[in-house]
């Protein structure tokens, strides 16, 4: 089901997705307008499957499957198909299949922001910070209908029906927190589940990580799982995760390393590093985390450094590097509204190049690095790969061990053969997931 017709503002310039902006010169990919429309509609719809990664450092897949099956049988109006992903031994797929998307609306309503609405459409419950409005008189355990504030005009704490042409009906739920708990006091950020979702117009069965002890499972998209799988971290490796918070991929790396070796995880701000540390602790991941700007963690003059002391590091320090770069996030699904400006989108490429340059130098000869983004633009994906191959002749692109995506788009200096080595995730991919991109590089020996 497609929600609004486009996630973007009317003034959004589609060239931002399909063109390569290099030093003010513009090159166009041959993605047709028809294909672009298909991508936009796909971005506005929800994936029908939910994937979750089982943390085998703390539990096993058989136990998780049992808990999930019991949970769905006891708590849901519809029992989804739950199975182990054919390509991964630690990933479970929840396929909502033909779950009904037609149900009655209730008189009482809850208004949520678009990020929260997007999460609900993928099967999340409503957490307190996402609630913008709740009609007065709502009681705990009462049924309510849920609407998304696409216009972003709803004032926090609204207590009457929200009159706005751009509110979208998202689904129904059962109230678990009252108004005074949600909006009451200044200086206290409310937390916890405010509304348990029962039905959504996407047909995704609600699922919550809290049905298992913390750190045993993580709701994670298949392309993100695949990207770490192709980094192939092993016990004993020295690995760098350059842009690591909140730590979804870091915890996967530590699991594949069986906590043996050295895993360094970096993020730029103290708040993000705190989130990263908490996640690693919850998941039992042995990680050395640091707050730093990863564009400046290399010291050309340092001949040797003790890696676990943190940056700066000397060149050629790491066997494996993940550069999961900050990006325009235009691969998010479903998108209900997007307010990114042209300048904001363009600002990512220079940062991605700087981060890439650090990574390329920090990689050992024979080492593997993965560059990834959760966006669909040509500039941030194939554009970065083409620029990297031109500027770092000591790097080569390698075929991922496991490919479930599509070849890269044309429009850069990459040949057809090279484009078949990168992995782009869009409406034509084998997996029904988010928009994503990754490329695997090896440093020549
Ligand atoms: C795409 S997110 C990473 C997601 C993470 N890899 C995961 O899977 O959970 C990008 C991260 O890069 C961080 N970041 C942005 N600029 C950075 C820089 N110059 N150095 C280090 N981290 C940076 C952001 O704070 C953000 O947490």
From TrEMBL:
Residues binding S-adenosyl-L-methionine: 267, 293, 324
DNA-binding in keyword set: no
Active-site residues, as the UniProt record annotates them: 374 (nucleophile)
SUPFAM superfamilies in alphabetical order: PUA domain-like, S-adenosyl-L-methionine-dependent methyltransferases
UniProt GO MF annotations: RNA binding; RNA methyltransferase activity
GO biological process, one term: RNA methylation
Keyword Kinase: no
Pfam families per UniProt: Methyltr_RsmB-F
SAM-dependent MTase RsmB/NOP-type domain location: 149-444
UniProtKB keywords: Methyltransferase, RNA-binding, S-adenosyl-L-methionine, Transferase
Homology family: Belongs to the class I-like SAM-binding methyltransferase superfamily. RsmB/NOP family.
Protein name as it appears in the record: SAM-dependent MTase RsmB/NOP-type domain-containing protein
């Amino acid at each position: 089901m497609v929600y609004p017709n486009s996630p973007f503002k009317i003034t959004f310039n589609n060239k931002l997705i399909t063109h390569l902006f290099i030093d003010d010169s513009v090159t166009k990919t041959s993605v047709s307008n028809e294909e672009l429309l298909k991508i936009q509609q796909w971005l506005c719809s929800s994936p029908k499957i939910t994937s979750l990664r089982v943390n085998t450092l703390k539990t096993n897949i058989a136990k998780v499957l049992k808990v999930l099956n019991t949970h769905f049988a006891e708590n849901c109006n519809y029992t989804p198909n739950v199975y182990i992903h054919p390509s991964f031994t630690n990933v479970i797929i929840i396929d909502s299949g033909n779950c009904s998307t037609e149900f009655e609306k209730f008189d009482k309503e809850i208004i949520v922001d678009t990020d929260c609405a997007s999460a609900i459409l993928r099967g999340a419950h409503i957490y307190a910070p996402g609630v913008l409005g709740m009609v007065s008189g709502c009681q705990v355990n009462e049924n309510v209908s849920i609407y998304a504030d696409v216009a972003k005009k709803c004032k926090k704490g609204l207590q009457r029906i929200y009159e706005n042409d751009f509110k979208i009906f998202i689904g129904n739920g059962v109230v678990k927190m009252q108004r005074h708990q949600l909006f009451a006091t200044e200086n206290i950020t409310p937390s916890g589940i405010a509304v348990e979702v029962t039905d959504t117009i996407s047909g995704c069965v609600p699922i919550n990580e809290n049905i298992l002890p913390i750190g045993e499972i993580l709701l994670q998209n298949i392309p993100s799982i695949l990207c770490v799988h192709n980094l192939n971290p092993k016990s004993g490796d020295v690995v760098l995760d350059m842009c690591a918070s909140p730590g979804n991929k870091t915890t996967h790396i530590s699991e594949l390393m069986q906590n043996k070796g050295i895993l360094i995880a970096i993020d730029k701000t103290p708040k993000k590093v705190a989130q990263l540390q908490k996640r690693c602790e919850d998941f039992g991941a042995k990680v050395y985390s640091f707050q730093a700007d990863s564009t400046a963690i290399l010291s050309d003059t340092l001949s040797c450094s003790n890696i676990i002391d943190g940056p700066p590091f000397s060149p050629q320090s790491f066997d494996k590097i993940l550069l999961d770069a900050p990006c325009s996030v235009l691969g998010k699904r479903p998108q209900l509204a997007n307010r990114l400006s042209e300048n904001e989108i363009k600002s990512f490429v220079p940062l991605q190049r700087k981060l890439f340059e650090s990574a390329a130098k920090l990689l050992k000869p024979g080492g593997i690095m993965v560059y990834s983004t959760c966006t669909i633009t040509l500039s941030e994906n194939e554009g970065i790969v083409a620029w990297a191959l031109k500027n770092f002749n000591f790097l080569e692109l390698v075929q991922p061990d496991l490919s479930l995506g599509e070849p890269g788009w044309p429009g850069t200096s990459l040949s057809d053969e090279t484009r078949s080595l990168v992995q782009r995730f869009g409406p034509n991919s084998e997996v029904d997931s988010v928009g994503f991109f990754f490329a695997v590089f090896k440093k020549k020996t």
